[in-house]
Amino acid sequence: MAISKKISSQPAVKTLPSWRTKFWFGALLAVAFVSLSAIFSIAAYTALVSEDWRAGENLFEGCNVLALDVRGHLVTYLPPSLDGEEDDATSSENLTYLINLAQKDPDIKAILLSIDSGGGDPVAGEEVAFALRRTDKPSLAVIRGLGASAAYWAATGANRILASRLSEVGGLGVTASYLDESGKNQKDGYAYTELSSAKYKDVGDPARPLSDEERELILADLVKMHEIFVGDVARHRGLEADQVRELANGLTYLGEDALAYGLIDGIGDLASADLDLARQIGEPVNYCWY
């Protein structure tokens, strides 16, 4: 998993390995695959970073602003692709690592997030938001086409959020919906054989329908996650929880409406961010894009 840098006033285009996980509790093969992928990913990432710093490479050489792309699916980590295909995805592991490095580097005066993402893993959004909140350097998030769900959660960690009048902002809510394949399997002559040591181990297996009890258990967790999301947005944006709760219906709002609701701080784009950050740091902006 490579971290690539481009010193520029415009974001570098990157494609990242495909990663996807959903509600799946019972499949032994899936558990083994995810575990092995995580091991390989962390090993490769650690080796890469260690090699860079052993060689004395300065990841931020020639820059005064760290600029981070948040594109596609937001996930916690990026395992290597086994099928050779690549998909747009961004990991909080990479983002938080770079934010923490920037915090320690006196040459980096500010941090920019350029966001075009419909969200992903809520933990990933929370991690990025928390990393931004921990830094004492000015931070600015620019929502381009879309900044929703976990991606919006990440943006709330920044000191300020800008978006276009046409940007889709918000999408506050949590979902674990999936396709129930049990009816099709039954029609095709397949029978589900349950082999689990614990009562709820295969909850969410698409090969069998949920019971009413299982549905209520899952929904209860989703409600808890929803309230954590609402609480973080309220704290980070300086809004009342009830106000955010009214907005947290899963809808996205156009930039002008998002501004009126307090979800963003202004209408603007990356050029606006240049001016905004230059004023804050007192010198022309020179980005390192990752």
From TrEMBL:
Q: Which UniProt keywords apply?
A: Hydrolase, Membrane, Protease, Serine protease, Transmembrane, Transmembrane helix
User: MF terms per GO, please?
Assistant: serine-type peptidase activity
What organism does the record attribute this protein to?
Answer: Candidatus Vogelbacteria bacterium CG10_big_fil_rev_8_21_14_0_10_49_38
- Check the record and name the SUPFAM superfamilies matching this protein: ClpP/crotonase (SSF52096)
Q: What is this protein called?
A: Peptidase S49 domain-containing protein
- Which InterPro entries would you find in this protein's record? ClpP/crotonase-like_dom_sf, Peptidase_S49, S49_SppA_C
**Lineage top rank: taxon:** Bacteria
Entry similarity comment: Belongs to the peptidase S49 family.
Q: Does the keyword RNA-binding apply?
A: no
Membrane spanning stretches: 23-48
**Residue stretches making up the Peptidase S49 domain:** 132-274
A single GO BP term for this record reads: proteolysis
